[in-house]
UniProtKB/TrEMBL annotation:
Residues 1-19 form the signal peptide. InterPro entries: Pectate_lyase. It holds the Pfam family Pec_lyase. This is Pectate lyase. Keywords: Signal.
Length: 514
């Protein structure tokens, strides 16, 4: 699914853990500054408070948010489709991300209790979208008779909409929503029974959605999943022939792809962060979440393909072999997902250096993938033909009949919304791999970079309260009105930057002058 770049897709998911309560009480605008408050910090506090209030008071509908909001007509709202005023996006960059941003702002600025209220309102909107299977889907619809149907946990009496009872991990939907719910629960001191209950209900069902013994997760779940053997990844039987994967073996499987183990769309880091937050926030169940996280790390290592291509696929079948998903999602080495898995394994090693195999798997993958990125090491193919080690054939070129015609590198003109190549993150992954050899503290922005990012957020705020993205000559989505929009991704990125700056100027960063 094509969507704006999600926070969950970024390798710096480590920074989810960077915001903590400010040891210095915040100050009201116009009051005397506290220790460690500089002109930039004062501006950051002001922008953070103003932007949060504007977004909450003017942009929210039922406490939730879309991806894009027309700056002139805030009722024109877009996710992957146009939404009416009773519909919100759960999927990133949507209501889950806004909730997290409000939580981090509230922790950074406890002198502004309205920030906690904003977080609660957004989390309450998420609760509306929680489905009976425990997790979340793309949207929540607040109409008495929803047009975006789902088997909502708290409002749907009879579920007769087929698959709408399933929760989805795809696009990090349930993972990010649960992180948001858990962090709000913690912010509120576990005193709000509705939020605490939503978190507990989701966590119990997430626990039963991890394949026992196997350690992976399916793309969606409706209930507990059956155990699977802890197999290591292997190549399909067609390897070594010359007919191409589209024709070399049967394209039939005993399960739908969404019921099989998946790494699609950067799910690995999202699972690691979800389980890490659960362990931290609910220490009485820490052993459970540690065991789940360990099992998932074991799965990631087993999912690494053997030589000559020790990277990862997008989707695996019951035999732990790369499989077809949709008819253009091929059994292949997946460049994007491989990079995400490497970030996840490095995060696991940073959290627990007693498992060196997590870091070692990344070293093996880097040695291979660094030979197939291209355009001066800036691009990596989304799909790489299995067992194709020819330098001239780095892209995927056989597709399932009826699929989109894939060619090397760029997307064909018949389907521009699906990327066949993406930015290579291998240099950054290599740097983190090397750093962890001697330093296993959590990765975070340098103070210099944080100051620059904060200054940009401060300076680009229109009327000191909102950030505008101009879409001209077209709108942000097909059919949208061209012009100025309030993008949730920009709001969240800037809010989290401001909150981090406010916090870290009292801890590890110099109080910068500006």
């Amino acid at each position: 699914m094509t969507k704006p770049r999600s926070l969950a897709l970024l390798p710096l998911l480590y920074t989810f853990a960077c915001a903590s309560p400010d040891p210095e009480p915040g100050v009201e605008l116009g009051a005397s500054e506290q220790t460690a408050t500089t002109p930039l910090r004062q501006k950051a506090l002001g922008r953070m408070r103003n932007a949060a209030k504007y977004f909450h008071d003017n942009v929210a509908r039922h406490g939730g948010y879309a991806w894009h909001h027309n700056a002139t007509n805030l009722d024109e709202r877009w996710g992957d489709i146009q939404l009416d005023v009773d519909q919100i996006m759960i999927q990133s960059p949507g209501t889950s991300d806004v909730t997290i941003a409000f939580v981090e702002a509230a922790l950074a600025d406890p002198a502004t209790p309205a920030l906690t209220t904003y977080a609660l309102d957004a989390a309450t909107a998420l609760r509306q979208g929680q489905v009976k299977s425990g997790g979340w889907r793309l949207y929540a619809d607040f109409k008495p008779a929803p047009t975006l149907q789902a088997c909502y946990l708290n409002t749907t009496a009879n579920c007769s909409c087929g698959g709408c009872a399933t929760s989805t991990y795809d696009d990090q939907i349930t993972q990010n929503a649960l992180i948001a719910m858990m962090r709000t629960d913690q912010l509120l001191g576990f005193a709000n029974t509705a939020i605490s209950g939503s978190s507990a209900y989701a966590r119990a069902r997430v626990e039963t959605s991890q394949f026992p013994t196997h350690g992976g997760f399916p793309q969606v779940f409706a209930g507990p999943v059956a155990a699977r053997p802890a197999l290591s990844a292997s190549y399909p039987p067609s390897i070594g022939t010359s007919c191409g994967l589209a024709h070399c073996y049967a394209n039939s499987y005993p399960n739908e792809y969404w019921d099989d183990p998946t790494l699609n769309d950067n799910l690995a880091t999202a699972f690691v962060e979800m389980l890490s937050w659960a362990k931290e926030i609910y220490p009485s169940q820490a052993a459970t979440y540690q065991a789940m996280r360990t099992s998932f790390g074991d799965f990631l290592r087993r999912a690494q393909m053997p030589q000559p291509q020790p990277a990862w696929a997008q989707q695996y079948d019951i035999q732990m072999q790369p499989r077809w998903a949709r008819n253009w999602e091929t059994p292949a080495i997946a460049g994007q997902e491989s990079q995400d898995v490497m970030w996840a394994l490095l995060r696991l090693y940073q959290l627990d250096p007693s498992v060196p195999a997590n870091r070692a798997a990344v070293g093996t993958a880097l040695a291979y993938l660094e030979t197939v990125d291209y355009a001066n090491d800036t691009l990596l193919s989304r799909y790489i033909e299995l067992d194709d080690t020819s330098p001239s054939n780095i892209g995927f070129y056989t597709v399932k009949p009826g699929g989109y015609p894939v060619r090397f590198s760029t997307a064909p003109p018949t389907y521009q919304n699906y990327s066949w190549e993406g930015p290579s993150q291998l240099a950054a992954i290599r740097a983190e791999y090397n750093r962890l050899a001697t330093d296993t503290t959590a990765m975070k922005r340098s103070c210099q970079q944080l100051r620059a990012d904060t200054a940009q957020a401060v300076d680009t705020a229109v009327n000191n309260e909102r950030w505008i993205t101009t879409y001209s000559p077209a709108g942000p989505r097909s059919g949208a009105t061209p012009g100025d929009y309030l993008d949730t991704s920009t709001f969240v990125r800037n809010m989290r930057t401001l909150a981090e700056f406010v916090t870290r100027t009292t801890t590890d960063c110099t109080a910068w002058n500006y």
